Amino acid sequence: MEDLKLIFAENLSALRKKKGWTQLELAEKINYSDKAVSKWERGESLPDVVILKQISELFEVTVDYMLTRDHDTVVAPVSKRKRRNRAMITGISAATVWLIGCILFFSLGFVEKASPGAWLIFLAAIPATCIVLLVFSALWWGKRLLLTTISVLVWSLLLFTFFTVLFVADKIIWPIFIIGIPAQVIVGLWAGMRRE
């Protein structure tokens, strides 16, 4: 096991230096502390399997590459087609939310003879799209997109609530936006967290 730690340490250090990243920059990309990266590069410990996979994808090598010393054979990078397909799936899913919104909007227009509140459907599509993006951000994309999506979700939900109450009850409830301030602070603090 000790030999495996040293092999991983050599490969990690070499790949990181090849990219021109500091240990801190690598740590930020995988949401860990630079102390953990330092321990890995000294051969004192190994990351868990999930992080090992994330690191190999970040450097566009296989997990096997990270754990072997002999690199005589060229290791194929992680497929760029896979990243493109993930982006396409995310985009199609988000567009589907808007397609459903359009169908509902036009259906309400025909059923209720151009309902004056039907435009709220498009406002509701914004947080619905954010929820779809949250799922795919958590699965495939980085922390930055995840945090941005959470912020947009919070503010779009508040905006939707504001306009719905304004339209339905004819009340202006601007203080609802105060909720967004601590929510945004929480998102900001979460962005600053590092794994040990």
Task: Walk me through the structure.
The protein is built from nine helices and no strands. By secondary structure, it is mostly helical. The two termini are 21 Å apart. It has two domains: 2-66, 434 Repressor (Amino-terminal Domain) (Orthogonal Bundle); 80-192. It has helices at residues 2-19, 23-30, 34-41, 49-58, 63-66, 80-111, 120-139, 143-169, 180-192. The model has no long low-confidence stretch (mean pLDDT 83).
Key attributes of the depicted protein:
single chain, 196 residues, mainly alpha, 434 Repressor (Amino-terminal Domain), 2 domains, elongated
Offer a concise description of the structure.
The chain is 71% helix and 0% strand. It has helices at 2-19, 23-30, 34-41, 49-58, 63-66, 80-111, 120-139, 143-169, 180-192. The protein is elongated, with a radius of gyration of 23 Å.
Q: What are the SSEs and their pairings?
A:
Elements: H1 2-19, H2 23-30, H3 34-41, H4 49-58, H5 63-66, H6 80-111, H7 120-139, H8 143-169, H9 180-192
Helix pairs in contact: 2-3, 6-7, 7-8, 8-9
Unreliably modeled segments: none
What is the residue-averaged pLDDT? 83
Describe the sheet with the most strands.
Answer: none
What does the radius of gyration come to?
23 Å
Q: Find the count of extended strands (DSSP E, 2+ residues).
A: 0
Strand content: under 5%
Query: Secondary-structure element order, as H and E?
Result: HHHHHHHHH
Instruction: Give me the secondary-structure category.
Output: mainly alpha
Please, what is the oligomeric state?
Answer: single chain
Helix content range: over 70%
Report how far the terminal alpha carbons are from each other. 21 Å
The outline comes out as elongated
Overall domain count: 2
How many helices does DSSP assign?
Answer: 9
